[in-house]
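Before surveying the methods themselves, let us examine one representative protein, pairing a chain with its fold in token form.
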Amino acid sequence: MRLTVTLDSDVVELLEQAARAGGRSKKHIVNEALRQLLTGIAAPVPEPAEPAPRPVFEPPAPRVADRSDQDALNAALAHYFGLPAPPPRLHLIKSER
């Protein structure tokens, strides 16, 4: 229901301060105050909802780079920056004879 009411300037100031401070509409504040005054019973104030817990991000365990990964990365960086390619690595394997 709509009702036009003329408020004193100091009441308007208080109403605007309460609306800003509580994050509620002026309509809600006026209804609550009139209900409380006329019935003597305070309207229940809803409790603010707690934010949902955020999931914890656990990064994957780092993988140890082997020699071929390092060689590939070096070659890619050399190519990107226009540098000469690094010389290939020679691996000697001792024979069991």
